[in-house]
Write a structure and sequence with these properties.
Blueprint: E1 11-17, E2 23-29, H1 31-40, E3 44-47, E4 52-55, E5 64-71, E6 78-84, H2 107-121, H3 128-134, H4 137-155, H5 160-180, H6 185-195
Parallel strand pairs: 1-6
Antiparallel strand pairs: 1-2, 3-4, 5-6
Helix pairs in contact: 2-5, 4-5
Length: about 200
C-alpha cells in the first residue's frame, strides 16, 4: 500500500469500530507503527508526546484489534477498522469525544430515544406514546397486531403510498413494543446475527 507520510514521517490514522461504524479516535502512524500494526494485528501509533511507538492498550488492555485498513484517495490518511477490546479513550469512554460506542441505526435510533423519553415523562395528555404505554403491554401488543394486519392488507393492494404509511405505523409501534418488553434494535440485531451462517 502506498502511503504519503508528511514532513515528520507521519500519517493520520482514523480509527473506526468495524461493527458500529463509529469513529473512535485519531492517531498518527509512522512507517514502523504501520508495519507493527499489520504484523501484530493490534493498532500501534507513533506517540508524538512520548516520541516512541505506542500500541493502544499496552497498559490498559483495551487493544484495538485490526479488522481492516485502507488509504484515502490521496494516500495521505488511513481509515483503520477495529474491534475494540474495551473503551477507546483513556478517560473510559467509548470514543475520544466522550461518547459511548453504541450502534446507531440512523433515524431509528433517534426514534427509540424519543419513545424512551416520552415513556419516562409519562405525559399522557400530550404524548400518544405515553398514553399507549399507560394502558399496559397488552394494548401496545394489540396495536402492533392491528398495524401488522393493516400493512398486510395494503401490501395486497396497488397503493404504494398507503402501504408505506401502514409500514411506518407498524415499525413505530413495534419499536414501542420492543421497549415495553425491555429490548431495543440492538437486541434484534444480535439475534439476527446469531442466526446468520
Amino acid at each position: 500500500m502506498k502511503i504519503k507520510y508528511d514532513n515528520n514521517g507521519l500519517v493520520p490514522a482514523i480509527i473506526q469500530d468495524a461493527t458500529t461504524k463509529n469513529v473512535l479516535m485519531l492517531g498518527y502512524m509512522n512507517e514502523e507503527a504501520y508495519k507493527k500494526t499489520i504484523e501484530t494485528k493490534k493498532v500501534t501509533f507513533f506517540s508524538r508526546s512520548k516520541q516512541r511507538l505506542w500500541t493502544k492498550g499496552e497498559e490498559s488492555g483495551n487493544f484495538l484489534n485490526l479488522v481492516g485498513l485502507k488509504n484515502d484517495c490521496d494516500n495521505d490518511s488511513l481509515l483503520i477498522q477495529v474491534n475494540p477490546a474495551g473503551p477507546t479513550c483513556h478517560k473510559g469512554t467509548g470514543n475520544c469525544w466522550g461518547e459511548d460506542n453504541t450502534p446507531n441505526y440512523g433515524f431509528f435510533s433517534t426514534l427509540e430515544a424519543i419513545i424512551a423519553e416520552r415513556v419516562a415523562n409519562k405525559d399522557t395528555a400530550k404524548s400518544y406514546v405515553a398514553s399507549l404505554f399507560s394502558k399496559g403491554i397488552n394494548k401496545v401488543a394489540q396495536k402492533v397486531g392491528e398495524e401488522a394486519v393493516e400493512t398486510v392488507i395494503e401490501a395486497m393492494d396497488n397503493n404504494d403510498e398507503l402501504f408505506l404509511y401502514e409500514s411506518a405505523d407498524l415499525l413505530f409501534h413495534y419499536l414501542m413494543l420492543l421497549q415495553a418488553k425491555g429490548f431495543t434494535l440492538k437486541d434484534i440485531e444480535a439475534e439476527l446475527k446469531g442466526r446468520h451462517k
